[in-house]
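User: Can you fold this complex?
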Amino acid sequence: MIRIVVTPDPIDTAAELEAVEGAGAGAVASFTGLVRADAEEEGGGVGVLELEHYPGATEAALTTLAEEAISRWQLTAATVIHRVGPMHPGERIVLVATAAPHRAAALDACAYLIDRLKTDAPFWKRETRAGQARWVEAKDTDDAAAARWGQGEEVRSVE
Amino acid sequence: MRVLYFAWVREVIGTGEEQVDPPAAVTTVAALIDWLATRDPAHAEAFRDRARLRAAVDQAFVPLDAGIAGAKEVAIFPPVTGG
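Assistant: Here's the predicted assembly.
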């Protein structure tokens, strides 16, 4: 079961996780990303974070990643919900949830999905601090995190 | 051909979408960017640093040297920052 949603609406984590649990697996793993309020060197904390995306291409990219994860880890479910539009510190930006027979596959697949989402899905963040808007720069560490999963590598499995 | 722009590329150019008809010699995304940059100062400014640009052809991510033969839609944007 694949569920991909790109939405301006708040993410209902409880309802989404319940649906993934309904896939009948022994293990469910999830990652929730929240808007950080971290005060940087100057200008104060984030007031508003806006997420722009590429309609159509975004959903296609997320579906491809979910299909890859399902086939690599034999998942019974993969859910990716990503919010777009304006949001505020503490609100949920993204939810990834995976279901598999055992924990290692569910946890690894969940990490894979969020790592690859950061480099392979067309979203852009613009944050406003103290009234000043700026586009967030991509991080080299995100490329490194995505690259660690390689391509079509064998996966260690611990039951 | 439909060309889409996102994030600061869209803001610098001043539009998110345009229809263009590049000459036959324009066969790659990089050549399309070069050609668009000659059209007006806003495109030239947005495309000044090619290392900061990424692209998609018909909604699939591609390197800038990818071909655009037969493409209906090319998107040009900064490195992505979702999640």
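Strands of chain B lie at 2-5, 17-19, 54-57, 60-62, 73-77. Chain B touches chain A through 16 residues (CB under 8 Å).
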